[in-house]
Amino acid sequence: MSATSAEPEEQVGLRERKKARMRESLMESALRLFHENGYQRTTTEEIAACAGVSQRTFFRYFGSKEDVVLEAVEDVDEHLFASLADRPADEPPFTALRNAMVDHWEYLRRGPLHLKGSAMGMVADSPELIEVNMRYCHRRQHRLARAVGERTGVDPATDPRPGVLAAVFLSALATGHQAWCASGSHDKERLLGAFLDRLDLVPEVVDGPWSPPGPSPG
């Protein structure tokens, strides 16, 4: 390839990197303001000002505040799907999902996705984001089913197993989150424990038989 033909590609690459950096800057500014001031009270004008750009620039990247939150949580999910793809090929699908969750959590705890990860709680807990949460849950299940299908070589469009597995996995996470919220805890390590407890119950719940719970400690 000649230098003349390579130059436009380099320019396009630079332009795309600048756009990606601006998108990340706007998203980070928005999420920080949402946590500091509340989602409802934060305006797109304030987000743009925090990122050092105009409100018009904000709308070049995001259609609304809701889009910022939705894209943030979907960015987090992309890492979960990547963790699933990296699991050993001989792991059964549900075991691979469970272990991918642990790998993903470790990355969330110490990596650059920490702020985006906090947006997941915002989506689940904010009344203003009920519609966003419904869209997110629907899309998340379908995207996870596709990721499971890619790993197993199964097409979710013709085989229901990836969709069933995705639904079971996400339902276990949802019940773990509910238990954590009900406990009044704010410890994220206990949240991970609640997730894993529910995931580890799935084989017993599915296969049975169920034994009556033992007496509560006195």
TrEMBL record:
<dbReference type="InterPro" id="IPR023772">
    <property type="entry name" value="DNA-bd_HTH_TetR-type_CS"/>
</dbReference>
<feature type="domain" description="HTH tetR-type">
    <location>
        <begin position="20"/>
        <end position="80"/>
    </location>
</feature>
<dbReference type="Pfam" id="PF17754">
    <property type="entry name" value="TetR_C_14"/>
</dbReference>
<dbReference type="InterPro" id="IPR050109">
    <property type="entry name" value="HTH-type_TetR-like_transc_reg"/>
</dbReference>
<dbReference type="GO" id="GO:0003700">
    <property type="term" value="F:DNA-binding transcription factor activity"/>
</dbReference>
<dbReference type="InterPro" id="IPR001647">
    <property type="entry name" value="HTH_TetR"/>
</dbReference>
<dbReference type="InterPro" id="IPR009057">
    <property type="entry name" value="Homeodomain-like_sf"/>
</dbReference>
<feature type="DNA-binding region" description="H-T-H motif">
    <location>
        <begin position="43"/>
        <end position="62"/>
    </location>
</feature>
<keyword id="KW-0804">Transcription</keyword>
<keyword id="KW-0238">DNA-binding</keyword>
<protein>
    <submittedName>
        <fullName>AcrR family transcriptional regulator</fullName>
    </submittedName>
</protein>
<dbReference type="GO" id="GO:0000976">
    <property type="term" value="F:transcription cis-regulatory region binding"/>
</dbReference>
<dbReference type="Pfam" id="PF00440">
    <property type="entry name" value="TetR_N"/>
</dbReference>
<dbReference type="InterPro" id="IPR041347">
    <property type="entry name" value="MftR_C"/>
</dbReference>
<keyword id="KW-0805">Transcription regulation</keyword>
<feature type="region of interest" description="Disordered">
    <location>
        <begin position="1"/>
        <end position="21"/>
    </location>
</feature>
